Amino acid sequence: MSKDTYLNTILTVIALLLGGLLWTQVAERSFVDPAQAQIRSGSARTGVVTGESDALEGVSGLGRRAIAQRQTLIDELSSLRIALEGFDGFVRSGKLVVRIDDPDGSEGR
Known about the structure:
Layout: H1 2-27, H2 63-93
């Protein structure tokens, strides 16, 4: 009987994992926000937040502050992508004009 219980447990776990995989593919998003993908790191992997005054500066690898910083980076990268797509559209449209004014004076050679 324990063999059947073990088999049923394993099959249930597999079914749940496949259900999660199907959900992420159908919904086209993951269970976790990308900004929360890495929330714990630190010196010697301790995850300890110190109360030092310089703890408020720089990039943090700890807790909610790290999540907010990563979300800010993701937002900035998204806006950069939009700007680059606009520039790419301008370049591909053919409206970009490049003019070279012989800066070294070699026109007569």
